[in-house]
Amino acid sequence: MKVINADNNTIITEHLKVAANFWSRLKGLMKTDSLPEGSALLLEPCSSIHTFFMRYPIDAVFLDGENRVLYILHSIVPFRLSPLIKNAQKVLELPAGYCRRTDTEVGNKLQIIKGE
Prior knowledge:
Number of helices: 2
Strand order of the largest sheet: 3-4-7-5-6
Structural class: mainly beta
Largest sheet: 5 strands, mixed
Number of strands: 8
Number of domains: 1
């Protein structure tokens, strides 16, 4: 699976994993050593995150039901809580700095392409 920013035609990630049940969302990226370039984790449903027991910062992109970017946390460090984002349905977790490198901004529409 991959994610593309439809507004600027940029590939955000080519290796997307999905956490769609309680335990996989709770675990998320905890206790992993890194999030490799080109990789991401999609938490759904989700409207807030934590970075407890993580070892590195991440970018967190909060999406509505149509994959429009509602809010971005840039380089959120370990042992933090995000705010609860109204209308967020999903959160895309990316390597720190990825949103700026891909010019991903609030209001952008993302496409999640399955099966590639």
